[in-house]
Design goal:
Length: 260
DNA sequence: ATGGTTGCAAAGCAA
């Protein structure tokens, strides 16, 4: 089973690219972020035509997450628990059959948090605290669990081409990185790092200043696997070539292959 | 380099 995650930066602007990716790679499950669409505006039928079931948590103008799956999406839940007042569309969960059992999959879009020193950064840290609680609760089910999405966290210096350029950015603050480590230390495996150690492994390149041409990237799109899921991990990858295509997202797909 | 680029949606915000 192949599970991919991709911040597509607008599903309407990226529909043809997304459909081409699905036709080429045929992932079983896809976690999308930044769909930038309300549910009614999501091109559900275009994905259904390729054989996918669709679940969305949309929002007008920005944010928004979705799950696509060839097999049915069961027990879909929308929203990150812990703050009834939080209206941002950043979290959707579903269970999908994997062989003779089920895997729980989350598509998440963690707040950017810039600029630091503002309520936006406080919101990011509060959101991560809520994520920690939800992840711990999900782990108690002892079902294979995959947290996939745009975490907006650069975990280590080697996850950036120019780490010094990010020291004042919310993505690389000590508090952001500490919250990431606490999450990982619940027992998750960083799937990309398990398969691809070392520098030069990036998932995002800014649109500005020719960042991609200079390979001035960062690794912020992650797939965290519970121990039950990590036991099934066969391989993972990053599809950088999508960043070189016409009208690309600034993020590229990250994927894992699990034994079923 | 106090700019630079893109999406949404129709001016300015978010990233």
């Amino acid at each position: 089973m192949i599970i991919a995650t991709w911040n597509i930066n607008g599903v309407k602007a990226r529909l043809e690219s997304a459909l081409a990716y699905l036709r080429q790679h045929s992932p079983d499950v896809v976690c999308l972020q930044e769909i930038k669409s309300v549910d009614e505006g999501f091109p559900t039928s275009a994905f259904q035509d390729l054989g996918y079931n669709v679940a969305t948590l949309g929002q007008k103008g920005f944010n928004g997450v979705a799950l696509l799956s060839k097999s049915p999406l069961e027990d879909v839940t929308r929203g990150l628990p812990g703050d009834e007042l939080d209206q941002h569309a950043r979290w959707i969960e579903a269970s999908v059959a994997l062989g003779d059992r089920m895997v729980r999959i989350v598509s998440l879009y963690l707040p950017n948090g810039n600029p630091i020193g503002t309520e936006k950064f406080a919101y990011k840290l509060a959101w991560m605290k809520r994520m920690q609680a939800r992840a711990a609760a999900l782990l108690e089910d002892e079902m294979p669990l995959v947290l996939a999405g745009d975490f907006n966290v650069i975990p280590e210096s080697e996850d950036a081409k120019r780490p010094q350029a990010w020291v004042n950015d919310a993505l690389f603050q000590p508090e952001s990185r500490a919250a990431w480590r606490s999450l990982v230390n619940l027992g998750f495996t960083d799937a990309t790092r398990a398969c691809h150690p070392g520098p030069g492994v990036y998932t995002f390149w800014d649109y500005q200043a020719g960042a991609f041409q200079k390979d001035d990237g960062i690794r912020i799109d992650h797939m965290l696997l519970s121990s039950q899921a990590a036991d099934l991990l066969r391989s993972s990858g990053i599809d950088r070539d999508t960043r070189a295509q016409e009208k690309p997202s600034d993020h590229v797909p990250v994927w894992i292959k699990l034994d079923s």
